[in-house]
Write a structure and sequence with these properties.
The complex is a heterodimer of chains A (about 120) and B (about 110).
Chain A: E1 4-7, E2 10-13, E3 19-25, E4 30-38, E5 45-51, E6 57-58, E7 67-73, E8 76-81, E9 90-98, E10 108-109, E11 113-117
Parallel strand pairs in A: 2-11
Antiparallel strand pairs in A: 1-3, 3-8, 4-5, 4-9, 5-6, 7-8, 9-10, 9-11
Chain B: E1 4-6, E2 11-14, E3 19-25, E4 32-38, E5 45-51, E6 54-58, E7 61-66, E8 71-76, E9 85-93, E10 97-100, E11 104-109
Parallel strand pairs in B: 2-11
Antiparallel strand pairs in B: 1-3, 3-8, 4-5, 4-9, 6-7, 7-8, 9-10, 9-11
Chain lengths: ~120, ~110
């Protein structure tokens, strides 16, 4: 149980294009989803927290107009990197917290999406 | 002072050894404690999830929480090369506020 998927698992794009990453909770409903960024050999950096049906809360220093987050349903959140540049190349990981039951105060992570911007 | 402190390692042990991973924290409001394992280029995988003080065992893994000392541990018995990964501790207060350690890199040498 508690499986989170991400799509795509990797993407290469040209500078200036936009990339959308999907995060789905497959066997539970998620009140809250999180988006992280991770550079090689570094820890997770929380980018934003999103609750279904409301605007995401972005961490300090994260540009909300560049990293658009949509949490349209209890099982789907999307992160769109707009006008991507090489410095946006990174490993993006989402996570989700179950709405009810055991584990509502923990996070289940997706497998991550590796973004390379040329 | 960071909310959660974790020694980044790296930690290198021979196969079969007992591994001890630790985190300390400063916020007494933390109630939920988690350990994640992250392989290279993968998302973190939840290993152990505990509430409040005490021990929890799952196979070769034991999680220990000492709220009086603000200290949590993860023990791995009979460590295997497949245990080589980065281990992250995490803690939360009710209402979805989470704090992660920086992760400890573990290598188990065959």
């Amino acid at each position: 149980g508690a499986v989170v998927s991400q799509h795509p698992s990797w993407v290469i794009c040209k500078s200036g294009t936009s990339v959308k990453i999907e995060c789905r909770s497959l066997d539970f409903q998620a009140t809250t989803m999180f988006w992280y960024r991770q550079f090689p050999k570094q820890s997770l950096m929380l980018m934003a927290t999103s609750n279904e049906g409301s605007k995401a809360t972005y961490e300090q220093g994260v540009e909300k107009d560049k990293f658009l987050i949509n949490h349209a349903s209890l099982t789907l959140s999307t992160l769109t990197v707009t006008s991507a540049h090489p410095e946006d190349s990174s490993f993006y990981i989402c996570s989700a917290s179950p709405q009810t039951g055991v584990g509502t105060d923990t996070q289940y992570f997706g497998p991550g999406t590796r973004l390379t911007v040329l | 002072q960071k909310e959660v402190e974790q020694d980044p390692g790296p930690l290198s042990v021979p196969e079969g050894a007992i591994v001890s991973l630790n985190c300390t924290y400063s916020n007494s409001a933390f109630q939920y404690f988690m350990w994640y394992r992250q392989y290279s280029r993968k998302g973190p995988e939840l290993l152990m999830y505990t509430y409040s003080s005490g021990n929890k065992e799952d196979g070769r893994f034991t999680a220990q929480v000492d709220k009086s000392s603000k200290y949590i541990s993860l023990f791995i018995r009979d460590s295997q090369p497949s245990d080589s990964a980065t281990y992250l501790c995490a803690m939360s207060v009710p209402g979805n506020q989470f704090y992660f350690g920086t992760g400890t890199s573990l290598t188990v040498i065959p």
